[in-house]
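Notebook, p. 212. Picked up where the previous page left off. The plan for this session was modest: take the two constructs that came back from the sequencing core last week, fold each one, and keep the raw output in the notebook itself so nobody has to go hunting through shared drives later. Recording the first one now, exactly as returned: residue sequence, then the structure token string.
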Amino acid sequence: MGQPESFAGKRVLLTGAASGIGRATALKLAELGAELYLTDRDAEGLDIVVSDAEALGATVAAHRALDVSDFEAVSAFADDVHAANGALDIVMNIAGISAWGTVSTLSHQHWKSMIDVNLMGPIHVIETFLPPMVAAGRGGHLVNVSSAAGIVALPWHAAYSASKYGLRGLSEVLRFDLARHRIGVSVVVPGAVKTGLVQTVQIAGVDREDPRVAKWVDRFAGHAVSPEHAADKILAGVQRNRFLIYTSADIRALYAFKRVAWWPYSVAMRQVNVLFTRALRPRPRT
């Protein structure tokens, strides 16, 4: 997409639009005059963000409550959008879920759900919305929201990282595959963001009501940026056709530390893992 002067008139799809980063980004785009296409599995929350976007003067050309892990549902929505409106200009894969745990506490469903929603969900959207964008020949942009857990080895994030590293790798390949079509690709790597996901994240084998656990979750949340701040960073990164879009300086610094000082990084991460495990005191899965 290069460096567009504005988002006005751009046809933009956002998944996960009902809350958090997705909602904040949708409303920022509404203020900037984009034509919105919104999805979320939360039908009530989706209706609210549609109303809020329209109150800002935006056109919400289509919206539908769906689960991105359901390929048939995503494909049907894509068919309807393209039949009525043609190819889109920007596709933003923001929907995602999170679960933490060790190999002894994570269930098979934890592993599967991370891949189904966080990796296959964006793939379903890419499969159905990117080919028409390529065929239209107008260029465009694809945004995939990965995570800090998609670039560094955060404790207990194996299942989550499996999906988020996969999404980052897919994005890197598409960055070059789609360049000849003038379609930019960006991957967002947020750290902590003040969304419902922080307070509802599944921690396998851990009692979320334990005051010690609540203290650590609150400490994590204390470093979080607002969804609006994250949305601003995303839109600025898209305008500059950045590949990696950071929403906070600490993640940029940690990733730089990993790349230039692997041995100190690995020592530090082992120590962080020990502290994390002592703090949360997991119970083995039975």
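Okay, moving on. Second construct, recorded in the same format:
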Amino acid sequence: MLILLAGIFVLHILGIILLLVATIDNAWWMTDTISTDVWAQWINKAGVWNYTDLPTGSHYPQDYLQAVQASSVLACIFSILGIFVFVAQLFTLEKGQRFTISGVFQLLACLCIMIAASIYTDRFHLEGAQGWYGHCYILAWISFALTFISSIIYFVLRKKTA
């Protein structure tokens, strides 16, 4: 059981790291000269990457952008709270109740990052812009899968008596 708990802890930490990288790093949408994230845009001019504000207008609606930003940050917060609750529950609650709260936090983190990535997919870079989704966008979807798997594991472990 100790090896299983250590594995779950490592999976949870990996999910947190991927969520933080996906939220903070600057590669949700890429072209040869532009790197865009949910906070800013970087433009390559003469081999130097320059920080600029995100574009405004109908192709970059600010209300949806704020929803993506808030959902990404909430996913990080819920997942970090979940790891602290996981450790606290190991020592305070009895068997059968231990991992419910951790599972709920992970499920909330899973839903938040899914909402952020889904809104970004549906509302941004639609009008045939030449480019591709960057590694942070892909990490957001991978962290969605990891947080979902860890939340399911928490709910299954709650029922274990050993």
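Notes on construct two before I forget. The chain has four helices and five strands.
Flagging for discussion at group meeting.
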